[in-house]
Amino acid sequence: VGVFFRPLDKIAAVIETYPRGIAGFRRYQELLATEPEIADSPDAVAAPPLRGAIRFEGVSFAYDDGRPTLHDIDLAVRPGETLAFVGPSGAGKTTLLALVPRFYDPTAGRITIDGLPLAAMTIQSLRRQIGIVSQDVFLFGGTLRENIAYGRLGATEAEIVRAAKQAQLGPMIAALPEGLDTVVGERGVMLSGGQKQRVAIARVFLKNPPILILDEATSALDTETEREIQSALDALAVGRTTLIIAHRLATIRHADRIVVMEAGRITEIGSHGELAGSGGRYARLNAAV
Ligand code: ATP
């Protein structure tokens, strides 16, 4: 994990709006420049406010090298549901979720949200309704306030403060002499991995999207940090359709359903209770933990 290219980090970059002229913007541009462009279809319209019923219908996908990565995926996600995607490295979890914000388009089949094909919506109106928290959080050289406000340009001070609290950043900000005015990054205070993740969570609280994609950290965090991030993420997921690439057992057990993927296919799907008793791969993995 994390050894090779991780599309979700790039999606997270693509999906947020870029304040122009801020330090670090260039890096984003470079990141974006490496990715294929997906254009709006000529008759695309702005998506209405989405409830988040996501359907994958016979979705297959191959990267440019032509190697098939996803095979004929059928999956219906209920609005507000939390799904945990598990499976070995390379199974296609990241790739599948990368199709939702149209970072790539399926090579066959289609994806709909609330019955509307993704291809019928403008990419901007779609991505505005998807929040992403990936493993690598990008902070630009600026204040904490600016870094959080990046979740939704034009947010008020009160909204920024509330998002910071919701993301469990309150105590950290209170402990900094300059609070939200603290400059972070290379020229300022270096944040820990866990603190950076909470900044990313605060951005998504501010954005308030109906759909959430989470790439759970695989790196070891101390118990305290993990608990703080977990409770912030749990709060974030409430009332949103949430798709998680899950690595932690607690996340997996608490998901409404678990989707087991192997070699580009869904091999099992069900609640923890259902799968644990099914005698399948999940049951074996679960027994081994
Ligand atoms: P992990 O848990 O390690 O992140 P994953 O289940 O998320 O794994 P993906 O990252 O979706 O799996 O990878 C699925 C397959 O697609 C792998 O064989 C991977 O090498 C390949 N792949 C991923 N990104 C690209 C890319 N940009 N170009 C070509 N192949 C890619």
Automatic annotation (TrEMBL):
Q: Does the keyword rRNA-binding apply?
A: no
Note the topology in the membrane.
Multi-pass membrane protein
Tell me the keywords, alphabetical order. ATP-binding, Membrane, Nucleotide-binding, Transmembrane, Transmembrane helix
Please give the superkingdom of this protein's source: Bacteria
Quote the subcellular location field of this record.
Cell membrane
Classify the main location.
Answer: membrane
Indicate the segments forming the ABC transporter domain, all copies: 54-288
GO MF term set: ATP binding
Q: Does the keyword Cell wall biogenesis/degradation apply?
A: no
Q: Where is the signal peptide?
A: none
Which named protein is this?
ABC transporter ATP-binding protein
| Source species | Halodurantibacterium flavum
Task: Kindly list the organism's lineage.
Answer: Bacteria, Pseudomonadati, Pseudomonadota, Alphaproteobacteria, Rhodobacterales
